[in-house]
């Protein structure tokens, strides 16, 4: 289950104004601080759970959805913040070998 805040809806409305909408994928992204939930525009796959919220289509892989539990999308001054009922991924703590800032 996915929940979005009013500020997320406002941001999406601004982004898609005058543009065709595409599904918004919640996925597990790798980065310097470990894996974290992230968003991307994508297409729906057979292995996805699909949820319509406030006029937008959100998709998440069924396996990730089972691991994460409830997912909440909010806005911060830095962009979207995606949190889940159960922590997924590695969280923070260290860098992979490709991070030049470490």
Give a quick summary of the entry.
With 102 residues, the chain is α/β, with parallel strands linked by helices. It has a single domain (2-14, 21-84), classed as HesB-like domain (Hypothetical Protein Aq_1857, Chain: A), CATH 2.60.300. It has 2 helices and 7 strands.
The 3D shape can be described as globular
Radius of gyration: 14 Å
Please provide the count of β strands: 7
Regions with pLDDT < 50 over 5+ consecutive residues? Answer: 92-98
Q: What is the domain tally?
A: 1
Beta-strand content = 35-45%
Give the oligomer, counting copies of the same chain as homo and different chains as hetero: single chain
SSE string: EHEEEEHEE
How confident overall, as mean pLDDT? 88
Features of this protein?
Hypothetical Protein Aq_1857, Chain: A, single chain, globular, alpha/beta, 102 residues
Topology overview:
Layout: E1 2-4, H1 6-16, E2 24-29, E3 36-41, E4 48-53, E5 56-61, H2 62-68, E6 71-76, E7 79-84
Parallel strand pairs: 1-6, 2-5
Antiparallel strand pairs: 2-3, 4-5, 6-7
């Amino acid at each position: 289950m996915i929940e979005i805040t009013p500020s997320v809806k406002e941001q999406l409305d601004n982004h898609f104004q005058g543009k065709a909408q595409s599904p918004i994928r919640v996925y597990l992204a790798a980065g310097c601080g470990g894996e974290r939930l992230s968003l991307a525009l994508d297409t729906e796959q057979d292995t996805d759970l699909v949820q319509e919220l406030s006029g937008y289509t959100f998709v998440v892989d069924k396996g990730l959805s089972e691991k994460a539990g409830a997912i909440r999308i909010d806005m911060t001054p830095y962009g979207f913040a995606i949190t889940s009922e159960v922590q997924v991924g590695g969280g923070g703590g260290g860098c992979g070998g490709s991070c030049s800032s470490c």
